[in-house]
UniProtKB/TrEMBL annotation:
Annotated TM spans: none
GO biological process, one term: heme oxidation
Protein name, per record: Biliverdin-producing heme oxygenase
Organism: Microvirga makkahensis
Gene3D superfamilies to which the protein is assigned, alphabetical: Heme oxygenase-like (1.20.910.10)
Lineage: Bacteria, Pseudomonadati, Pseudomonadota, Alphaproteobacteria, Hyphomicrobiales
InterPro entries, per the entry: Haem_Oase-like, Haem_Oase-like_multi-hlx
Length: 188
């Protein structure tokens, strides 16, 4: 079993749990609920990106995949001021990311969510009328390149795969799902 296959199998319960608990239909049904959802994603990504960037295996690749700037753009488009965005709560406690293997496992979750983001973007546009310029840049993150970006990330994971790193990568992915669930689904 490849590392990608193992990640898919071993994180499936956590993926299903967060997908079920998100109550996405309610959270993209109104402008206020949607803005609150983006604020929670901002709190997760802001904290996660600061923590992960210090030990990311390839800083240029990592930074090209960061989503906080897209969330800021969306929140500004939805009426928040920059000083309000800066004061939004940040995800705490965040999972420890002690090394590049942990970052790769965590990135598996974050990058995987971009695949679902393309579907969510269509629903946001249908329900609320927002596009990449008016409040849906985060969910459109890579635009038409979402599948290409996922394949490139998968190749990066497979290249990093080894008997010494795979357990750490899988454990970090599972922990990221747990933290993300607590932050996004247990939020007010």
């Amino acid at each position: 079993m490849t590392l990608l296959e193992r990640l898919k199998v071993e994180t499936r319960p956590a993926h299903d749990r967060i997908e079920s608990a998100m109550k996405l239909d309610r959270r993209i049904a109104s402008r206020d609920e949607y803005r609150n959802l983006l604020a929670r994603f901002y709190g997760f990504h802001g904290a996660w990106e600061r923590s992960a960037s210090a030990v990311a295996p390839d800083r240029i690749v990592f930074e090209s995949r960061c989503k906080t700037r897209l969330l800021i753009r969306d929140l500004l488009a939805l009426g928040l001021a920059e000083d309000e965005i800066i004061r939004l709560p940040q995800c705490d406690p965040l999972m420890p990311l002690p090394n590049s293997a942990a970052v790769l496992g965590s990135m598996y979750v974050v990058e995987g969510s971009t695949l679902g983001g393309a579907v969510i973007a269509r629903e946001v546009e249908r329900n609320l009328g927002f596009d990449g310029q008016t409040g849906c840049a985060y969910f459109r993150s890579y635009g038409r390149d979402v599948a290409v970006m996922w394949r490139r990330f998968g190749a990066m994971l497979l290249q990093a795969s080894s008997p010494e790193t795979d357990d750490a990568i899988v454990a970090a992915a599972q922990e990221t799902f747990r933290v993300m669930h607590n932050w996004l689904c247990e939020a007010p």
